[in-house]
């Protein structure tokens, strides 16, 4: 059985994920790893992988969340873009302040204060990862719904034969780095993540979703 090896240097943990295992999972199945990583089957032979660089952090410590969209097929996989997001409000954090609408990545994340599962998540409880009401400059619209992702076999790399695409040989992987969130006050304030348990979501535009948890403690 072919295996895909993914190295997350921040956590110094080696994840070995059986490609056929992800491909055989029911749609939207949540597979929680014993440490800090999980995967879920998506549509069209794709698989979303989501991990944290730890499960316990101190206040003000940077949290790195890695999201990865993999092609589990042994052939080129041409997948049309979609808008079947599993949750409203997914984004890529302060590095992408324009939101998911301007990202060329087919996935996003969300953070909730508290210990939740797939069944009791509510978009209204999302923490603000970007400063509210800030005027963004240089934002561009994402690729249209008719865009087709060309995934190389058994990896997350895009390849467009005979096409001059800015996404050629680009990995569909992104690290979101966070230390806190913005309050919903009249004058928003930035706060480090408070002590307690947090639920973090990784999801893609074809409807797959992964749920992980981390704790902030002294």
Describe the structure.
By secondary structure, the protein is an all-beta fold. The protein has a single domain (22-216), classed as Macroglobulin (MG2) domain (Immunoglobulin-like), CATH 2.60.40.1930. 2% of the residues lie in helices and 37% in strands. It has one helix and 15 strands, in the order ββαβββββββββββββ. It has a five-stranded antiparallel beta sheet with strand order 3-4-5-7-11, with no helix packed on it. A four-stranded mixed beta sheet has the order 6-15-14-9, with no helix packed on it. Strands 1-2 form a two-stranded antiparallel sheet. A hairpin with a 7-residue loop joins β12 (180-182) and β13 (190-192). The longest helix is centred in the first third of the chain and has 5 residues, at 19-23. The chain starts with a strand and ends with a strand.
Average of per-residue pLDDT values:
81
Give the overall shape, derived from the CA principal axes.
Answer: globular
State the domain count: 1
Q: What's the tally of helices?
A: 1
Helix/strand/pairing category: mainly beta
CATH structural fold name: Immunoglobulin-like
Strand content: 35-45%
How far apart lie the N and C ends? 43 Å
Give me the CATH architecture, please.
Sandwich
The amount of helix comes to under 10%
Specify the CATH class.
Mainly Beta
Low-confidence stretches: 1-34
Question: Strand order, biggest sheet?
Answer: 3-4-5-7-11
Report the sheet with the most strands, covering strand number, pairing sense and barrel closure: 5 strands, antiparallel
In N-to-C order, the SSE pattern is EEHEEEEEEEEEEEEE
Radius of gyration: 17 Å
The CATH homology group name: Macroglobulin (MG2) domain
